[in-house]
Amino acid sequence: MSTRALPLALAGAGLFVAALDAYVVVTLLPAMIGDVGLTIERLEQATPIVSGFLAGYVVAMPLLGAFSDVRGRVPVYAACVAVFAVGSAITATAGLWPFAGLPWLVAGRFVQGLGGGGLVPLALALAADLYAGRARTLALGAVAGLQEAGSVLGPLYGATVAAAAAGLGGWRFVFWLNLGLALACGAGLVLASGTSTAPPRAALASIDWTGAVLLAAGLGLLVLALYPDDPERRATNALFVPAGIASLVALGAYGWRQLRHLEPLIPHALLRTRAFAGAMLANVVIGAALIVALVDVPLLGRLVFNLSQLDSGLLLTQFLIGVPVGAVVGGVIASRVANPVVAALGIAISAAAFLQMSGWRADELSLHVGPLRQADLALAGCGLGFGLVIAPLTAAVLALTRGQTHGLAASLVVLARTLGMLVGLSALTAFGLHRFHQILGTPVLTDPDLRSRVKHLEQLVAAAFLQEYREIFMIAAGLCALAAAVIVIAFSGRETMAAPGTRRAS
Amino acid sequence: MKRLTACLAAVVLVACGGDSAPPNAARILRDGAAAMAQLRTVSATLKLTKGTITLQGFTLVGARTSVRLPADSDTVYTVKEQDVTIGLEVVIAGGHVFLHVPFSTFQELTGRQASTFPDMARLFDPSTGLPAVIPAGTAPKYVSTDQLDGKAAYQVSTTYTPEQVHSLLAELSSSGPVAARVWVGVSDHLIRKAVLDGPFGDLGHEAAVQVDITNFNGAVSITSPSP
Fold this sequence. Notes:
- The complex is a heterodimer of chains A (506) and B (227).
- Chain A has 3 domains: 1-203, Growth Hormone, Chain: A; 209-261; 266-506, Up-down Bundle (Growth Hormone, Chain: A), CATH 1.20.1250.20.
- Chain A is 73% helix and 1% strand.
- Chain A has 18 helices and 2 strands.
- In chain A, strands 1-2 form a two-stranded antiparallel sheet.
- Chain A is globular.
- The two termini of chain A are 35 Å apart.
- The relative contact order of chain A is 0.12.
- With 227 residues, chain B is an alpha+beta fold.
- In chain B, strand 8 (138-148) and strand 9 (151-160) form a beta hairpin.
- In chain B, 36% of the residues are buried.
């Protein structure tokens, strides 16, 4: 392996491990919440276990690229890996002591997200440092691809590792394992980088702590506004309006600050283009739809189809196969058809798949089309659609930017999608749990013994969850359709809509 | 003169060493029982720390109870089915037993159904519960003086027979003697914590439970829920 490829491979491996952890908890949630003393009827309190990581991820992502310009990529990368490892250790120890309850677990996930989120711009910047020209675009694509692959593989990875390590702490082992992986990637990068990476540049930029505080406050308030504290009675909590307004103010101040006062992380010229803004918006919406597949499908497997932890993760297999297949197919088609067209086509396929899923039944897993399960076909189609859209949409954004800002552009794409995931997760959880309680009502159970009552209740709960998830899949279909429309409008009339062979030379 | 000095030194040593004599363990348990017999209200949490105990087909994780003596209690049993944790609330008030399964309404249980849940008030009953059983432990031994929630408590080790354990809670059936460590408040003599370790798990396997007792004569609210 070349002196440039090895550091990038190690940086990418660390990013992949961190991205895995974004949704690694989805299949592990029932066991995790039980171990911190929560019972299943307080499922809403588990939301921050996922959203806490995403919030940390989103906060760290825009900050550390510029910081590493001053301090050097490798030291900052190693620091981020260390923070990720500390967060993993905190998460792994949740529930072991009386004081290490849910807040401890959420704090661990947030710290994990901070470390993991920082790795995104650092790995992208490292790729841009190490390579130039066409090789740089390929390297950036590979790093972005690892981030995406880690995200979608997380639920299955978590279920598989926890099942294999049942005697070694189950879900805790998933997080203990991160310590070894983080050490290998961080130390390996430090040792392998030597003089092959670019030295720190002159101190042209420094970390924007005010911006970081504003972004963290804005996202934290947003998650708080959308937190369903009492889903039995209301979809959001009493602080929805004030926290929502405060969130908008903080996020608005962050945006204003970036645009007006500081050396902007986002170049003004780039922001002014309809295509760039549209691509960012489409990524936010796609993130909100993607989170439905990654989080709600495994939960549906557990709560409705009564699958085991491992099997609920495996339910996503077809989706996970669909994503890379879609990416490859997208790449092939994109050589003949313009990236935005492929992206719009892809997200339309995901919309159709979600539409089919919105009609799923309790016995869906027994329904077959020929030798194949109907549900697997829908999930494969959904994954195929996301695979088709993610790479071409990123490529379309890169095509709008100059080579030296490809790292920033790719980072912004991931940021937009992760932001969409965070907002989508928070909003859809609030909606979903409220709908669940509305549908379930307060059943009267008069079965002769406790076992029968619980069995009866399980059936009622499964039916309510099924209806809730049908509605969420319908919303996801709508989000996909919206994203397709945004892509078409954003790129219509531009040369980027034309096939590559017909593009104007620039 | 030397003899006088030696005698004085011996007197001083005996006087200083008088405080280091270990407290009487049997006395500590008796005092604890007497103090517990005076309670009107109390809260407790029970945590299974070893082995498996099955409650009506579900694996018991722990329980949290508030008791108003002589017979009222509000208890949330935390149980597991596969890896899903469920809270089952049982309210015993005015001789009626009510069960709350998650998401559903409270339902009154009658007859055999009602008797299948442990009556946590019995745990503190002066004639059959902790006050009666605690002093009856065999070979009690003072272990140490510990701090529990900022209060000094004597730790005493002892052993109970299966019959004595069964008397505490009818649902606990042990196939052999149960080792116990009991923490009794130094100043108020209240029993603050107990750890039982013995063959009272499923199929007579080894199990251990830790009981933390709080809110002595504090406010508790136990009302008959309307189904």
